[in-house]
Amino acid sequence: MGESTEGVVVLEPQLLCESSFSDFGTVIENPAPSLIPTRSITELPPNAVQANQGSALKYLDVTHMKDYYASAPSKKPSKAVMNMFVCAPRTLLPGQSPRMEGLFPIEVLERHPYTTQTFIPLGLSPLEAQRARYLVIVTTSLPPSPADANLPVPPLTVDGASLPGRGLPDPRRIRAFMANGSQAVTYGAGTWHAPMVVVGERPIDFVVVQFANGVGIEDCQEAAARERGRAQLAVAVPKAGLERPRL
């Protein structure tokens, strides 16, 4: 889980990458940012094809948008929606180390049981993208209990895909990742995650793509991030350049 200090359980984030995040969703980023598309490229990166008369590289199916609203209790049809979130940097609690920018307390988690949700940073130059940072905080679900009986979810399996099903967020299995502005992230349907947490000096604009049907309890469900009587959870936000390496 993490180390405990003065009644607070502190989590250390690791740098976001596809291999460590795959249980929760998808990371979208350019795998070869130094490669300039030209007709003369002889060896293409994995999963890439040439496009636009050789002036572009097209990476195929970089994330998987899923719509499970057909199984929602209301039976109200969904539609693809694209919103923009302008996210200011969060206020942090004081840290206990000169390597830390501060502590972000995890208070609330949410999930979208019937849809994936993709956050795409917008309008950042390459230099700004490396300086812009945000936290991705996720966890698995606890076993079903009376406390979540009123929260509708899809079946555990839909069209061969395994879904989390019922259950409130498990505070003992929370994981935190540090992302930068060159990375987009897709949360899997039903994945408990924190609302967007931008850290650093500047806001980040995100285009957010998902499905929705306008029924509040089917579009988004919220829960407390910690169980009553348990310690406060917080993420130790490292200063820029001092992040924990990718695993």
- Please outline the major beta sheet: 5 strands, mixed
- Briefly note the CATH topology name: Jelly Rolls
Quickly count the helices.
3
The beta-strand count equals 20
Q: Quickly count the domains.
A: 1
What value does the Rg take, in angstroms? 19 Å
End-to-end distance, in Å?
16 Å
Order of helices and strands: EEEHEEEEEEEHEEEEEEEEHEE
Which range best describes the helical content: under 10%, 10-25%, 25-40%, 40-55%, 55-70% or over 70%? under 10%
Question: Quick one: CATH class?
Answer: Mainly Beta
Strand content: 35-45%
Uncertain segments are: none
The helix/strand class is: mainly beta
What is the averaged pLDDT score?
A: 92
Q: What would CATH call the homologous superfamily? A: Ureidoglycolate hydrolase
Organism: Phialocephala subalpina
Catalytic activity: (S)-ureidoglycolate = urea + glyoxylate
GO molecular function: ureidoglycolate hydrolase activity; ureidoglycolate lyase activity
Keywords: Hydrolase, Lyase, Purine metabolism
How are the elements arranged and paired?
Layout: E1 3-5, E2 8-11, E3 14-15, H1 18-21, E4 25-28, E5 48-51, E6 56-59, E7 79-87, E8 100-106, E9 108-111, E10 117-122, H2 126-131, E11 133-139, E12 157-158, E13 161-162, E14 175-180, E15 184-187, E16 192-193, E17 197-199, E18 204-212, H3 216-219, E19 221-224, E20 232-238
Parallel strand pairs: 2-20, 3-14
Antiparallel strand pairs: 1-2, 4-15, 5-6, 7-18, 8-20, 9-19, 10-15, 10-18, 11-14, 11-16, 11-17, 12-13
Structure write-up:
With 247 residues, this protein is mostly beta strands. It has 3 helices and 20 strands. The chain has one domain: Ureidoglycolate hydrolase (Jelly Rolls, Sandwich). A hairpin with a 4-residue loop joins β5 and β6. Helices cover 6% and strands 38% of the residues.
